[in-house]
Design goal:
This protein is an alpha+beta fold. The chain has one domain: 2-Layer Sandwich (Muramoyl-pentapeptide Carboxypeptidase, domain 2), CATH 3.30.1380.10. Helices cover 30% and strands 9% of the residues. The protein is built from six helices and five strands. A three-stranded mixed sheet has the order 4-3-5, covered by helices on one side. Strand 3 (32-37), helix 2 and strand 4 (62-64) form a beta-alpha-beta unit. Helix 2 (39-48) runs antiparallel to helix 3 (99-116). The relative contact order is 0.17.
């Protein structure tokens, strides 16, 4: 279930203090290096963290990133003795609720506007870097992915091959809510750096942040 009301805001009827408590608890474990959430969720946490107590140090571990609007990802520190594991640099100690979040909202706005533009006739499909295969991953990754005896759910009957392929991707899930034509028009007319309107308060893909 998406936590968003629109591309820039959480839905307060869905993203409640219970979800905030869950994210805070996950980020508070010393074994956790980072938590990745959608920028709108990060914004809501910044605005409402006081509801969860005076300690806001955990906010620095919660990092905004694309598409994480119906789930969050956890990045753990390397366990003791894991010689093949390399820790990422620790977060800076800043809560990430200032200029960093402002920069993300500028990128969100640009992404929404670009996505609304019609595709010019004759445009070739985007061909990016092919996904990694199991053979390209470290051996330890294969051990993790094949452990536990997990059996994938069979695809629903009647689904097209394209739908089955989409369900198997890492980004499968509910789409991000879109803006109405009037909201989009208002957004396009909003000066750069300004992301709030009367109706709607107004982020490369490698989260090395």
């Amino acid at each position: 279930v998406s936590m968003l009301k629109d591309p820039f805001n959480v839905d307060p009827s869905i993203f409640t203090v219970m979800q905030m408590k869950l994210i805070k608890r996950a980020a508070s474990y010393p074994q956790v290096a980072r938590i990745f959430v959608h920028p709108a969720i990060k914004k809501a946490l910044c605005q409402q963290a006081s509801q969860l107590g005076k300690d806001t140090a955990w906010l620095g571990k919660v990092r905004p990133w694309w598409n994480h609007h119906y789930h969050f990802h956890v990045r753990l520190y390397c366990p003791p003795g894991a010689e093949a594991c390399e820790n990422q640099k620790d977060v800076s100690g800043d809560d990430g609720c200032g200029q960093e979040l402002t920069n993300w909202y500028a990128m969100l706005k640009k992404a929404v506007i670009e996505a609304a533009k019609p595709v010019p006739p004759g445009t070739k499909p985007w061909t990016g870097k092919p996904p990694l295969t199991m053979a390209q991953l470290p051996r330890e990754c294969g051990t993790v992915l094949t452990a536990g005896g997990y059996t994938p759910e069979p695809p629903p009957e009647g689904e097209t091959p394209a739908a089955i392929k989409a369900l198997a991707t890492k980004d499968a899930g509910p789409p991000i809510p879109t803006l109405s034509p009037d909201q989009l028009k208002a957004l396009i007319g909003t000066p750069a750096g300004t992301t709030d309107t009367a109706e709607m308060p107004l982020p490369d893909r490698n989260p090395m942040r």
